[in-house]
Every structure is written in structure tokens, then in C-alpha cells.
């Protein structure tokens, strides 16, 4: 067992290699993710309420509710953006794979009587419906996908959006990659924590794949065995993001440093874009 574990820990996965285990759909981890989303002190799962409020205001300035009433929120989590958008009059469809987050989002929207439909599924292969006026991908989800997955998703969104509909997303920027480094660390819990409800050890490795890809890899060891999770991050500059968008039939309308609409800055670790569906491609 030790030899197999050592071999796995030392192995460098191929770029965008996926693991069989999807941590966001695991019942225990899904509950832990929901707690992280709702913890205003934890920036690793969701941004602060103030940031989200500013983001929703910027989204409305880019795609006013009067002219863009139907919005698709991809990877909606517990509905932090979806609910705020619905309060501003948008008709929102949210999709996510986490059952715990969706249950929370549904209960909140039902309690307020908000115009939000939530779908449990993977937006890479789910039926998205439409047509929508706006599609939103927040918290850098786009860069977690492989090049083929990104191309496929853009093609799907091109079909789901109405003519001249807009896609608003953010990604990690080159400055994020430049500040990352190869490292390893470990965590141990005797009573359970994020990864498992019982005792475990988690080995975490961050590995750089030049010129712009980062892998965060987690090996979780417990009495139940070993599970491995790969989390990929692709970093972009305005040119590389625009190239992908144009190739998929979108025009780049504008760029910002983040989803609040702050002006682009070289030192910013994120990059936001407003992309418009071309009528022909």
C-alpha cells in the first residue's frame, strides 16, 4: 500500500487529467462546500457579500434587465448571485452539481418568491434550455476547464444565447500564475473536517505547468482508502481570452480587472470579460 501511495504522490499528472472522484458531488464535501460558500470570512469558496453586490450592479450595467431579462448562472452554488439578480428583476436559471448548495438556494428563493429555476447537473453536458439574454460564469470557473471543455462549453452557450446575447465571466490572470509556485503541504484531522467526516490525512501539491496552467492536487488518506482530486487553473491575458472567444463566435466587448468592473490592471490576479454572441460565425 505504501509503495502505491508513494508512486501516486510522486506521479505528475498529464495536463488537465481528471480524477474519478468529483469532490463537489460527494455528500460530505458538498455540505462542507456550502458552509464555505456561506462563511463571509472565507474567500476560497465565495467572494464577500460586498464584492458580490458590486458585481451584480456591474452585470446590470453591462446587460440591463430591461433589455436582457433572462440570465443563466453557470455553477450557481447556493445562489449568491442568482438571488441578487432575481431581486433586480431578472428571470434566472441556475445550474450546479452540488446537491447541498442547490437545496439551500432553492429554499431561499422559495422563501422570497424569487423568479429563479435551479437545475442540478453538470453544465458541460446538461440541457441548458434557453434562449437566454445573458450567461454568467463567476469565480473563475471557466479556467478550471480543459481547452476542449472550454471550446465545447462556448459552443453550447453560443446556441443557448439569443442573437447578440452576452457572456460575462472572470478568469485568473497571468499575475496569478506568476505569483504561484511548486509546493507541497499536508493536513491531518482526527475527528473529520473538510474532506471526510472521520479521521484523515490530506497531502496537497501545487504544480506549475508552463506557461499558464496550475494544478492543485489533493490526496486524501483514511481508513476507507485513498482518494485523489485534481483542480486545474488556466490563467489568461486579454489576448488569449479574446482569441478563444472569437474562435467560438463571440466578440470581446470589454475587459475589467474583476467582476466589479474595476479597470484592467497589470498586477490584478483576475480578469473579467463581457463577450457578445456574433450573429454568424
Automatic annotation (TrEMBL):
Keywords: Methyltransferase, S-adenosyl-L-methionine, Transferase. The keyword Ribonucleoprotein does not apply. The keyword Transmembrane does not apply. Residues 71-165 form the Methyltransferase domain. It comes from the Bacteria. One of its GO terms (molecular function) is methyltransferase activity. GO terms for biological process: methylation. CDD domains: AdoMet_MTases (cd02440). This is Methyltransferase domain-containing protein. The lineage of its organism: Bacteria, Bacillati, Actinomycetota, Coriobacteriia, Eggerthellales.
